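Most newcomers find our protein records easier to grasp once they have seen one. Sequence and backbone structure share a record, each on its own labelled line. Nothing more is needed to start thinking about how sequence determines fold. As an example, a complete record with its sequence and its structure tokens follows.
=====
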Amino acid sequence: MRYLITKVKGVKVGHYSDKKNVTGCTVVLFPPGTVAGCEVRGGAPGTRETALLSPYKTVSEIQAILLTGGSSYGLAAADGVMKYLREKGLGFKTEWGIVPIVPAAVIFDLYLGSAEVFPTAENGYQACLLASDKNFEQGNVGAGTGATVGKWAGPQFWMKGGLGNTSLEVGELVIGALAVVNSLGDIYNEDGTILAGAINERGEFLAEIQKEVSVRKENPFFANTTLLLLVTNAKLSKLEANLLAQRIQDAFAQVIKPVHTRFDGDVSFVAATGEAEADFETLVAYSIEISKEAIRNAVRFAQCLPGVPACSDLKFE
């Protein structure tokens, strides 16, 4: 279970993957008392309940976060997560009943498989039933099933994106990051080379050949998003969780180019379970680094599909 976000005590991850229709969803369940924040960037986000995470809003705890494919249709999977949590008696308690708090965000993956099939409430419920604090699959799984990257030059040059994660332990502090990468931009290594992105049939990355990235307005594949969830056992206020969600967007900018365009809907979540003391700026520094690694892992673990090469297993002539 090394390097998984489930190293944070009480956190569970579950996937629903539809390999035939190339879509899916991922749910992350949290222990009681988990505080969360969120930052949304780019011009084309698809979200649910993210406004509730503002430090100005009343509710302070969440029970789960859903990441899903299917564009806005896929947000219906959150209904299944709410059903599961309500059956467990988990949620915001009111005089009239329990209301589970499940923020959610989507990627647009309708072009790769079927545009008529997307995650449903039943699928969200299934992901909860499968949620575990043990090992879980990465790559073409859950919300990353239909993800692609490097679409700035058009679909004939794209590569497979996916879902990746990593974690870090420093003394009592535990930090984990899980990313679903479906970006317009290319994914870069620490040394500035391209890990995955717009690529030709000879295995040459277009940005390296052209020495520039030209995003054309007429490109029909402006359907992109990177989602990232950072989980930590640190004690954070709701305000601090939101500030950390803002800061880890730096990881997006360092690894994905271009990023935060009007054709992206980039969302970063932070969830803090409140068990360990941590200096905030130190936490920020660690969080940015593991967020970058989770984004890279999303393409490292991805597997190719017909017409969509992947950096993990494709060999060019």
User: Anything to note?
Assistant: The radius of gyration is 18 Å.
